[in-house]
Amino acid sequence: MTTDPRTLAIINDLRKLPAEAPWAEFKENNPDGQMIGKLISALSNSARVADQHFGYVVWGVRDGDHSAIGTTFEPGTRKENGQPLDLWLAQRLQPAIDFKFETVDYHGTRLILLTIPAAMTAPVEFDRSAYIRIGSATPRLSEHPERLRALWAKLQPYAWETGIAAQFLTGDQVLARLDYASYFDLTAQPLPDNRAGIFDRLLADRLVQQDAGGHWNITNLGAVLFAKRLSDFAPAIARKAVRFVAYDGMSRANTVTHRQDGQRGYAAGFKGLVDYIDGLLPRNEHIGKAFREDRPLYPSIAIRELVANALIHQDMTVGGAGPLIELFADRMEITNPGQPLVSPDRFLDLPPRSRNEALASLMRRMRLCEEQGTGIDKVIFAVELHQLPPPDFRTEGDAVRAVLFAPRRFAEMTPEERIRACYQHAALKFVSGQRMKNSTLCERFGIDPKNASQASVIIGQCQKAGLIRPADPTHPRAGYVPFWA
What we know:
With 485 residues, the protein is of the alpha+beta class. The chain has 16 helices and 22 strands. The strands form 7 sheets. Strands 14-13-17-18-20-19 form a 6-stranded mixed β-sheet, with helices on one face. The protein has a 4-stranded mixed β-sheet with strand order 1-2-7-6.
């Protein structure tokens, strides 16, 4: 029997409701399994419509005046068709949800609290029927199409970011865990002179949520962006920290020279991470037409954008994995967990699709990444300006990997790299309102115009690979466009 402070605070708040809410129900001793199954479905669906994270059933509270009178209901020993009640219910609920019965010592009175997570990806069904709460009735959801539409409208934008990273915290505990000063600085907002103002802004950007009894929850979004220490949170958050590893050779078998496991949230620690990487990079005195006496081996804008992309586009639901940045003698690899939502060969032209829209929106607002749809353009532009081998975007198992290569002369590039560079150059020209020509490809590779036939060979190979085509077959001098144009 629990006396957990948060559980007691939840019951206190529920008892203060003027009447049963669509996501809250009071019972005295009714233990019927069919009734409970329908209620779980109805309250889960209704909670999502009402923007609540949980629905609740309390046994032992009188419906009329919400007095705590106690209950004889014993969910731990209750059987349905010879099965334990919780197992019987779980087998009949789809999608599966993590409901929980608790026996509560409520100031000396025995109550039962059933906590039901709000529907997340689809309406919750019991015995293949979804239910909804309307007043004190629990009808089938299919009988009320307007409510079904309202539920689906709420389900569509549901995302990992709105989940709870830490719950039932005091205001002091929230401010101790989040770098709220960085939030106000990065979003260019003045720091309020009182706590209420601070929490109003954190709440508006969904970094925190109100919990029971005047307490607060930190959302996954708040934790992953602004945690002072990601290790202060559960492993599902802590393992999303960015890892950086540098090797003294060209493979992972070589000696590790530098390693850093990020502890701060992405936004709070982004500048420090990029500066740390930049400080480790060798300097190159001359890189083609982008000559500078003190330039890092890789363009800073390319590193910044690819790191930001890895943070934004990762699949947060992949357990035990976070973004990984690896520096080798001849390349840099940036990997994020999750299958791409857009084919890697279309990263440049297709509108980006992000699993983490709230995170992406805040990162753009804080100018930690480029405007939507322009990041990869800038990466390829910078690579071409520095006449580096073309970046490689590919799927590796259940992850996406972007590879930047160290400077190499045109003669040292592989045939595959030349073809990939030709395709990326054609795509970059097209999205810029231009067309690739033999002369522009010579410029991209640093080929002397006297040797323009080398560019012609590459264009022919790229056409044969099906990656580009003539812009106008009847006018060969019109240039070339990517295959999807």
